[in-house]
Write a structure and sequence with these properties.
By secondary structure, the chain is an all-alpha fold. The protein contains six helices and no strands. The longest helix is centred in the first third of the chain and has 28 residues. The radius of gyration is 19 Å and the shape is elongated.
């Protein structure tokens, strides 16, 4: 596979995102049913996530927050992974970096949805950002034909 190896961590992160989706609803729906502020969850109309947030325990909201986070910076990760795969640059170091990024994002998720220690989350986010920057740099070298 070599040039396509980089797709494995991308698909793994997609799988993780769907695990977080399931975890979010597995905690959110029971919390909505138990909430004294929500008389009948089936009859909620026009409620936004922000207004619903006020009616649910923070530990429940953490899962939704993380699910949203998995649709923010990782979109850039998916784009750079596809770019590197198309350029046949998805093996070796780039695939390794992609696995590191995925591992850091999964770890970030686990911290956010359990203990939610902000400093730990920040460090994990910063490290994953640096890995993403390295992948973007590698793609830039090929796309812009930069000779270093």
């Amino acid at each position: 596979m070599n040039g396509l190896d980089i797709l494995q961590p991308a698909v793994a992160l997609m799988i993780w995102t769907m695990i977080m989706w399931a975890w979010m609803y597995a905690t959110r729906i029971p919390a909505m049913n138990k909430s004294p502020d929500i008389e009948n969850p089936a009859k909620l109309v026009g409620t936004t996530g922000a207004s619903l947030r006020q009616q649910l325990p923070e530990k429940v909201n953490w899962k939704a927050d993380n699910y949203n986070h998995l649709h923010e910076q990782p979109t850039v990760f998916y784009a750079v992974v596809l770019t590197l795969a198309v350029l046949d640059q998805g093996g070796g170091m780039n695939a390794f970096l992609a696995w590191i990024y995925t591992g850091l994002r999964v770890t970030h998720s686990l911290v956010q949805v359990t203990a939610n220690k902000v400093l730990v989350r920040f460090v994990l986010f910063a490290l994953s950002s640096l890995v993403l920057i390295a992948l973007i740099f590698h793609a830039s070298i090929v796309v812009f034909d930069i000779h270093i």
